[in-house]
From TrEMBL:
Name of the protein in question: Uncharacterized protein
Pfam families with a match to the protein in the record: PPR
PPR repeats mapped onto the chain: 181-215
Species this chain originates from: Polarella glacialis (Dinoflagellate)
Length: 454
């Protein structure tokens, strides 16, 4: 019986193979693969049907499948009423007074220096608009006042806008009646220091000497700060030794502000503070105290944060934290707060909220007098930067914006002058179009709109 079944199976197998070969196509999927493809198709349809708000960056991140808002935090990119009024006046052919230009430039340049009130991306937007209005002033054959130029240079130094600092220094050098002094050179060096470019900062220090201006402590502090930005502490120490030798030989310039004498040492103390090495950070500050150098509120803040970064335990000294906080409150400037909310929160946890408020009350200071308001969150700022890169991918400026390269102010002015001359009528890619019997098309005769201070 078993032999008979084996023989029948052997004879029926070729017939079954031929039957399925003729009825089922070769490219047909089995049931499991069809279900997988069907599920993937439905998932893609759900992603396509998902609605998103606008405006956003055009290209989503490959790692995070969602778009980001391409707006600056606080919507500081929107034009103010004064800007809108001046643009409308320029479009009508009426040039505003030089005092109006000076007022706009000074307002934005001062906002760019308010680190306790605005985030870094907001301050860079302010200094960009300040120099655009100053450039528009030159294009309208007006000259900014010395106060306006000084506010611009200080804004370039704080925000690290090396392109603007270089261009306006060259403008001071070639303009009759203007002088590029120590303040202007210091601002250029500090701008390169903020951007972490020590070689270029050192080169500008040498140009300062060639111009007959003796560098002071603030000039060398820009180079030390550049080395601190890239984390080269050995180069910082070598530069500080050079500053000490120049001071001993009497070849160091007299500082414009007495507290500027300690700026090179502040950068070294900050580098130790960032790694919670309170002993070395405080030793640097004690060196300044032994030399009887006037200390600014920045030195007291460095001392306070150095103690706060020490982990809780036997190495942390709460009395030292209290003394440092008292010095910060006593030496605070009248212009505004000096502490960020994060630092104040750490200090409150270390001292206790009751003791924190008692110290403020003893010195007649309110919480808002010492602690700044909350800045835009890091997630919001990070989202704007991602949206900026996403938007730049599809534009012609993609690599430039993605790498965060500084714009060339000289090229901007050249382009504005070319736009002012106007394009030749009838210019096309193949040459110049000759007007026919009916003349040129209307789009060739339309004047190109001028975008003032953008």
């Amino acid at each position: 019986m078993a032999a008979t079944l084996v023989a029948l199976a052997a004879g029926a197998a070729p017939a079954l193979v031929d039957h399925f070969a003729n009825t089922v196509p070769k490219e047909a999927h089995n049931y499991r693969s069809v279900e997988v493809v069907r599920r993937r198709t439905k998932a893609k349809q759900r992603v396509v049907q998902r609605k998103m708000r606008i405006p956003f960056g055009k290209h989503p991140s490959k790692e995070e499948k969602r778009m980001r808002e391409a707006f600056l935090p606080g919507r500081v990119h929107e034009a103010t009423k004064r800007e809108a009024t001046m643009r409308l006046s320029l479009q009508k052919g009426t040039v505003p007074a030089s005092e109006d230009f000076d007022r706009v430039v000074q307002v934005f340049a001062r906002r760019a220096r308010q680190e306790m009130k605005w985030a870094s991306v907001q301050r860079r937007e302010f200094i960009r608009r300040a120099k655009r209005w100053a450039t528009e002033m030159l294009l309208q054959e007006l000259e900014p006042s010395p106060t306006t130029v000084q506010a611009l240079m200080l804004g370039f130094a704080v925000t690290g806008d090396r392109a603007g600092a270089k261009w306006w220094l060259s403008w001071l050098q070639r303009t009759p009646g203007r002088e590029a002094g120590r303040l202007a050179y210091n601002c250029v060096i500090e701008a390169f220091g903020m951007d972490g470019r020590p070689k270029e900062a050192e080169a500008w220090l040498n140009q300062m000497r060639e111009a007959g201006i003796v560098p002071d402590a603030r000039s060398h502090a820009g180079v030390v700060q550049a080395w601190e930005r890239i984390g080269n502490r050995q180069a910082m120490l070598e530069k500080l030794l050079q500053v000490r030798d120049l001071e001993a030989d009497g070849e160091l310039g007299e500082p414009l502000n007495p507290t500027d004498a300690g700026l090179p040492y502040y950068a070294l103390a900050r580098s130790y503070m960032k790694v919670a090495d309170a002993v070395r950070a405080l030793s640097v500050l004690k060196l300044l105290q032994a030399k009887r150098v006037p200390l600014s509120v920045e030195a007291h803040l460095l001392r306070l944060e150095s103690h706060l970064r020490v982990p809780p335990g036997p190495r942390r000294s709460v009395p030292e934290i209290e003394r440092a906080f008292v010095d910060v409150v006593k030496n605070r400037p009248k212009s505004g707060p000096v502490m960020m909310p994060e630092l104040a929160e750490k200090c409150g946890w270390a001292l206790g909220q009751e003791r924190f408020q008692e110290i403020l009350a003893q010195h007649g200071a309110g919480f808002a007098d010492v602690v700044a308001t909350e800045l835009p969150s890091q997630n919001r700022v990070h989202g704007y930067r991602i949206a900026k890169v996403q938007t730049s991918i599809a534009s012609g400026q993609g690599p430039k914006l993605s790498l965060n390269l500084k714009e060339d102010d000289g090229e901007y002015i050249k382009q504005r002058l070319r736009d002012r001359r106007g394009a030749k009528v009838g210019v096309v890619k193949a040459g110049i179009r000759i007007p026919g019997q009916k003349g040129l098309p209307e789009w060739m005769t339309l004047p190109k709109p001028v975008r003032f201070a953008t």
